[in-house]
């Protein structure tokens, strides 16, 4: 990766049972730690416009989740538990402990946010503050898709049985992923992405194992992730730490902040606060200034 995407950050390879995971870390080593987790179909590179400024006051770790970027992309198990957000949360804890952080703030975009809120529910002592970027709870997402089958068709497509989605994407992977990403930006273009970051995304999109891993991520969302949410709702479990919900006004927040925030306050985060960001789905790259301002205020609280 070009060094100028993360100036002054160090590179780390962490060995886990499923393989080697990649992370970058920067900022004062004795500062409070914050972990930044990317979404689909990206990698830690999505934070390059936000991480250096956060590193002025925090020890910032940017991790490639399993199956993405440069981290391991194992095949996974038949029940999709290997790509469940519970399992990925456990891997996050191992990575952060290996870097010297037993407790940390977490900022998660898209799939990274799903890992984050699952970890906050499963291991509340680990997470000091949680920022969720442009997502609804998985269980709410599926309920809304049941009510309106036209919503988020990529969820059902990617969660379909192997190898059909993998085969379809594999016919022209970069074209398929770029079409998805364009549809989620605010202007339907790729101009918001730095060429160096986009090049990294494209490299990963061309790897069959990573295509499969992305599908496994969504299959887990349809199975064990959804089941875990349903069980926690039934048990009345709630996130204990402060929660910030940021929504893009041209994606999850297109109907305003209130419906998205209500999805969280009515389920796992009754105390959550929120803000709408003028952006498409990719807040850290489409509107890094507003995203950074909101995160700095929240992390300083």
From TrEMBL:
Record flagged with keyword Cytoplasm: no
Signal peptide limits: none
Xref: SUPFAM superfamilies: alpha/beta-Hydrolases
Keywords: Hydrolase
InterPro entries: AB_hydrolase_1 (IPR000073), AB_hydrolase_fold (IPR029058), Epox_hydrolase-like (IPR000639)
Source superkingdom: Bacteria
Molecular function terms, GO-annotated: hydrolase activity
One Pfam short name: Abhydrolase_1
Boundaries of every AB hydrolase-1 domain copy: 32-287
Protein name: Alpha/beta hydrolase
Protein's organism: Methylobacterium oryzihabitans
């Amino acid at each position: 990766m070009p060094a100028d995407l993360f100036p002054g950050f160090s590179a780390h390879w962490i060995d886990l049972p499923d393989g080697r995971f990649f992370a970058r870390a920067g900022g004062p080593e004795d500062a409070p730690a914050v972990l930044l987790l990317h979404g689909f179909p990206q990698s830690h590179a999505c934070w390059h416009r936000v991480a250096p400024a956060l590193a002025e006051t925090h020890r910032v770790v940017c991790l490639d989740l399993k199956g993405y970027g440069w981290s391991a992309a194992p095949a996974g198990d038949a029940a999709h538990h290997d790509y469940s957000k519970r399992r990925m949360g456990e891997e996050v804890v191992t990575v952060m402990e290996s870097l010297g952080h037993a407790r940390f703030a977490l900022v998660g975009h898209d799939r990274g946010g799903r890992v984050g809120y699952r970890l906050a529910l499963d291991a509340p002592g680990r997470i000091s503050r949680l920022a969720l970027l442009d997502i609804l709870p998985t269980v709410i997402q599926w309920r809304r898709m049941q009510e309106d089958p036209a919503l988020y068709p990529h969820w059902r497509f990617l969660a379909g049985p192997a190898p059909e989605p993998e085969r379809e994407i594999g016919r022209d992977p970069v074209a398929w992923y770029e079409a998805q990403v364009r549809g989620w930006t605010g202007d339907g273009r790729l101009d918001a992405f730095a060429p160096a970051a986009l090049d990294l995304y494209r490299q990963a999109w061309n790897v069959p194992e990573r295509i499969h891993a992305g599908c496994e991520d969504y299959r887990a969302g349809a199975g064990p992730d959804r089941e875990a949410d349903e069980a926690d709702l039934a048990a009345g479990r709630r996130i204990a730490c402060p929660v910030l919900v940021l929504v893009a006004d041209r994606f999850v927040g297109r109907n305003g902040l209130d419906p998205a925030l209500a999805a969280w306050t009515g389920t796992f985060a009754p105390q959550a606060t929120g803000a709408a960001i003028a952006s498409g789905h990719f807040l850290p790259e489409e509107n890094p200034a507003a995203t950074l301002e909101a995160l700095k205020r929240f992390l300083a609280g």
